[in-house]
Amino acid sequence: MSTSIKSFFISFEGIDGCGKSTQVKLLMKKLYDQKIKAILVREPGSSKIAEDIRSILLDNKNIDMSSQTEALLMTASRAQLTREVIIPKLEDGYVIVADRFQDSTIAYQGGGRGLDVSFLSNLNLFATEKLVPDLTFYLDITVEEGYRRVNKKIFDRIENAGKHFQSRVRSEYLKLVEKEPNRVILVDGNDSVEKIHSIIWNKISN
Fold first, then answer.
1. DSSP secondary structure code for residue 35 in this structure
2. Where are the domains of the chain?
3. Percentage of the chain modeled with pLDDT above 90
4. What is the pLDDT of residues 156-176, one digit of tens each?
């Protein structure tokens, strides 16, 4: 799907605790400071229907949810967000910054849950009307470091999946970096917040 020259679609990915949400906030501030029209979205969520789906997905009461149901709900949320928010804003010349997008399904439901990655890739294309981010930043840290950083007493349903799950997620992300090096940019999540922000901004500016 083609978009206007002024529009640009950036996504951030990584395992829990990688620091992507911090970098998303810094990037949004930078874009605002540069007087660039930009909007931030998160997945799952950022629309009424998508937020309702998010509540179902993350609720610990839904411990019996199957992996297939999880994948379908994730992509359903993405489909609504894409049609309701992302496509219209891109057509209006906005920069879209997404805290997770299609690659999360490949990593979490593919790598983490063990579902067929090829099927999930096609499902993503259906859900997003073939829209793919122009640039994706994957912040890489170890699973152990991620758990050290996440300072929470209560974890949501997906966070509760455990370290082995997160390890499989990380492995799938690294496969994506190898598969799409021009789009998916690996960033060392162990660097300082300032250095990571500088790397990201320089890449976007270029």
1. T
2. 8-205
3. 88
4. 888 888 899 999 999 999 999
Vertex 176: Cα angle to 52 and 203 (nearest 5): 90
List beta partners, residue 138: 13, 186
Q: Is 98 helix (H, G, I), strand (E, B) or coil?
A: strand
DSSP tally for the chain: helices H, then strands E: 9, 5
Contacts of 199 (CB under 8 A, 6+ apart): 187, 191
Residues listed for the chain: 206
177 C-beta neighbours (distance < 10 Å), count: 17
**103-140 pLDDT per residue, tens:** 999 999 999 999 999 999 999 999 999 999 999 999 99
Q: Which residues contact 117 (CB under 8 A, 6 or more apart)?
A: 106, 110, 111, 172
Q: Which amino acid is at 39?
A: I
Give the residue among 174, 134, 128 at the shortest CA–CA distance from 18.
174
Q: What is the CATH number of domain 8-205?
A: 3.40.50.300
Residue 119 neighbours by CB under 8 Å, 6+ apart: none
Cβ(62)–Cβ(46) under 8 Å? no
- Is residue 114 within 8 A of residue 108, CB to CB? The reply is no
Q: Which residues of 26-43 are buried (b: 16+ CB within 10 A; e: fewer)?
A: bbbebbeeeeeebbebbb
